[in-house]
Each structure stands twice: as structure tokens, then as C-alpha cells.
Amino acid sequence: MTSHRYSPRAINADLLRAGIGLFCCLVPLAAVDFGAVVTLVFAVPAALFAIFGLRTWRNRAITVRVDADGISTPSRTIAWHDLGGLKLSYFSTRRDRENGWMQLKIQGQNRTIALNSALEDFETVCRAAFEAARRHDIELTDASARNFAALGLGAIAPDHEPTPAALTGWGNPADWRR
Fold this sequence. Notes:
The chain is an alpha+beta fold. The chain has helices at about 10-30, 35-60, 120-135, 140-150, 165, and strands at about 1-5, 65, 70, 75-80, 85-90, 100-110, 110-115.
């Protein structure tokens, strides 16, 4: 069994971003009496930054456990034999797709566990999920298969017909890790 936690460095960086965003939205609201429309322009992002900050704070306490039977967090457990779907997505923060993060969604019976690449030893968790999907014959989307291939797991068959989205260059993980 392996245990994984979110990196304190990534957690602290996200908390700092949430705090700065919240500060930049709330200070003008407290300092100036705006009309309803302008108040809404500042209040909606403030609420989003607050939600992001709370979710990030919650991630500090999450420990992900992976073993031969399944994967678990403090609130959810998915046994590998109940695996219903697996999706690995890449989200870029720049146009050249150099920076970004990955998100792994593991679906079981009426449950989903979503983990992002700030999790320490994220590739080990991906490997365990990928092997379980392979054992239980879970079909992956084209994008997920390419993302797993970028991590060195599996490969795209040479006769594989790419989707139109793949032909545009988006979702080509070979370009992400240079």
C-alpha cells in the first residue's frame, strides 16, 4: 500500500493565489460604494477565489491510499473491481502547452475520485489506475490514452485513427514534456 499527499509547496502557492485574488476583489468593495453591476463584477470573482481557497485548504488534509484492492481518500473508496471509468486530462496554462497540470478522474459505482498532479508521486497513482483499467477492460478516451502514453503507460496503436481534436495539435502529450 502507498500513501500520497498533496505537495505543501503547491498547496501554499494555490493558497497565496486565492488570498491575493480575494484581497484584490474585496478591497475595492470595502473601499468604494459601487452600483449593483460593478459590485457584482467584484463579488462573483471574490466568491470564486474563496471557493478555490477553501478547496485548496481542504486538500491539505487529504491522504490518498492505493493498494491492490483499490484507491481511497478520507471520504471515498473505489475498489478496482468496481472501476467504471478512467480519465486523465491535461490542462495547459500557456499557448505552447509547456506548463499545466493533469487531472485523474477515477469513476466507480456512484462515486468519483478526482486527483490533480500536485499530488506527490502522481505518476504512481496513475500507473495503478491504468493497470486496473487494463485488467478490467475499461476503455479509455483518445485523449486519456495519449496522456497515459505521455507518462510512459500504454501506447497508441499505429493504426489508431486520431480524433479531429487530436489533429489540431491540442491534446498531444508528446509536445508537453520536452
